[in-house]
Amino acid sequence: MAIELPHDDDVEIELTTQQARQGLELHAMRYVLGISMVIAVIAMVSVAIFTA
After folding, report:
1. CA angle centred on 12, ends 9 and 18, rounded to 5°
2. H-helix or E-strand spanning residue 32
3. Which DSSP symbol is given to 40?
4. So what's the pLDDT on residue 37?
């Protein structure tokens, strides 16, 4: 690819990729938090069942 791009386009592309990366990280964090919440709830319920 020998296409000459102006510098502004490069900066814009870099910004959009950074935003996409941040969005993915946020989504992954939410996913991990959701899974850990579910695990914590299951653990609490099982402890309640065992102690009852």
Report:
1. 140
2. helix 7-51
3. H
4. 97
